[in-house]
Design a protein that fits this description.
6 helices, Integrase_cat-core, Nucleotidyltransferase, domain 5, RNA-directed DNA polymerase, nucleic acid binding, 4-stranded mixed beta sheet, RNA-directed DNA polymerase activity, alpha/beta
Length: about 170
Amino acid sequence: MANRSMGRIGCLLRGIRVYLPAALRKRVLRELHSAHFGVTCTKSLARGYCWRPGINEEIEAMIANCADCQSVRAEPAKMRLLCWKPPSAPFQRVHVDFAGPFMDTYFFIYVDAYSKWPEVQTCKPTTAENTVNMCREIFSKFGIPSILVSDHGVQLTSTVIRILCSYSS
C-alpha cells in the first residue's frame, strides 16, 4: 500500500511480519540463509520477520541444496541393531505383537523364531486378560516358550502377563 500523503511507500503486513513481494523473495531468502544456521533456525528467523505462502518449503529446498550446510549437517543417531542368536528348537523363542485395527478387529500375531510358524488370533479388545487367554491357548498347542519377545506394548507388560511368564519359567 502506498502512503502518498507522506511521500513513502508502506508495507503490507501479516500480523507483525512483512509480506514478501515476489521481487524480493530470493534476496530475502539468501539473507536469511547467509549465516547457514540450518532449517530450524532459518525458519524461526523467517517467522520473526517475514511471511509468504510456501516460505517453509523454499527454506527447506534451499538448505537441502546448499553444499556448505550439507557438509556440516549432523548425521542421525545410529540405533544399535540387536541380533538374536538362532534358536536351537521350535517354539524356544517366539515373537508376539498386535496388528490393527482392521474393521474394528485386532490381530494377535505369534511367530516362532525357529520355524517361522505364525499363529494369528482375532480379538476385541486388546486387554491384558485377552492376551493371557490367547497365550495360554497357543502355549497349550505348542508348549511354553523359553523367551517371549514383544515390543513392550501395554498388554504385554502388564502384571497378568508377568504372572503368566513367571509360572511358565
